[in-house]
Structures are given as structure tokens and as C-alpha cells.
Design goal:
A seven-stranded mixed sheet has the order 3-4-2-1-6-7-5. The termini are far apart. A hairpin with a 2-residue loop joins strand 6 and strand 7. The chain has one domain: Beta Barrel (OB fold (Dihydrolipoamide Acetyltransferase, E2P)). The chain has helices spanning 38-54, 74-77, 160-163; strands at residues 5-16, 27-34, 72-73, 87-94, 100-101, 119-131, 134-148. The chain is built from three helices and seven strands; from the N terminus they run E-E-H-E-H-E-E-E-E-H. 26% of the residues are buried. The longest helix has 17 residues, at 38-54.
Length: 168
């Protein structure tokens, strides 16, 4: 049975988990998925196909040729960004802050421990939309489980140890 709710693993980028984005007032993130992770990529593609079938009615009885799909190829769409190479990515959002747990499924109280660059498991819900002539598949952000730390991804961020010298 195909499902529109999946759990996949990847690396988090552009995280807005503590406060909603200033643009759309939603919590969200970009999930980067390695192209080598056949299991996660397969689950996402299966969920997209499930939504295509279940949303035909809202799209006029067929799947539109210009349907907006949430899964993007990092090598094609973000070739200048190293963290997106050999990866797919998607954006997921939600109205309320997601629950965030650690490897033992215990709540992470210090949200600073979950950041752009860490590796996660995440639940995603795929849905079809038809709004103002735009038809596509969107992604709701579910819960997040931090798997392990990774190098932080921050725009123009330089480690202080690389920028300053010791003062004696």
C-alpha cells in the first residue's frame, strides 16, 4: 500500500524550528537527501506518486503536465553549493513547532542542539494542492529525530577560532 506519510533521513538546512520564518510565518526546513540513499529517495518518490493518484480529482481528473514536484536535484538546481552536490532536496513546513527528539526518542529541550547541518530522521506528509491556478505537491513537516551532529551550515559564518588569534 502506498502512503503519503513517510519517515526519511537526511541533513537539515535553512532550519526555522524555534521561530517561524519571517516570510510565511511557518516553521520549516530544507531536507538534503543523498542520492545514494535509495531507501529514503524511494519512499519520497513513492509518496509523490501516491499523491498524484489521490489528487487527480482536485486537478480536474488528471495529473497536469506542469505539476510542481517538491523533490529537487541539487546538482542541477544548486550546483554552486557543495552541501547540495550528489543530493536531492525538498522544503517542508508546518504551522506549529515540530516535536524534536534525540536518538533515544527523548525530547530535546535545548533547541540549539538541532541546527542547519545536523543529520536527522524526519516524518513528512505529502499532499496535493490547487491554489490560484498553481497545481502541485507540497510537504508538511512532521516530527524530527536528531541522529548525529554535522558541520554547521550558516551563510557567511566563519568559526571564531579561524578568525581571531589568542591574546596573551
Amino acid at each position: 500500500m502506498k502512503k503519503n506519510r513517510v519517515i526519511v533521513k537526511g541533513r537539515m538546512a535553512f532550519a526555522h524550528l524555534n521561530n517561524p520564518s519571517n516570510v510565511d510565518k511557518k516553521y520549516g526546513m530544507t531536507l538534503i537527501i543523498s542520492k545514494d540513499d535509495d531507501q529514503s529517495v524511494g519512499r519520497i518518490k513513492e509518496a509523490i506518486e501516491c499523491v498524484k493518484e489521490s489528487s487527480k480529482e482536485k486537478w480536474g481528473g488528471y495529473v497536469p503536465n506542469n505539476l510542481k514536484i517538491p523533490l529537487h536535484d541539487g546538482d542541477i538546481e544548486k550546483p554552486e553549493k557543495a552541501q547540495f552536490r550528489n543530493s536531492f532536496y525538498l522544503n517542508a513546513k508546518c504551522s506549529d513547532p515540530p516535536q524534536i527528539v534525540d536518538r533515544n526518542v527523548e525530547p530535546i529541550e535545548n533547541r540549539a542542539e538541532v541546527y542547519s547541518g545536523c543529520f536527522i530522521n524526519v516524518s513528512l506528509v505529502f499532499y496535493g494542492y490547487n491554489m490560484s491556478g498553481n497545481r502541485g505537491i507540497g510537504v508538511w513537516l512532521g516530527n524530527i529525530q536528531k541522529i548525529k551532529d554535522g558541520p554547521r551550515m550558516a551563510k557567511n559564518h566563519i568559526d571564531a577560532r579561524d578568525e581571531f588569534e589568542v591574546i596573551v
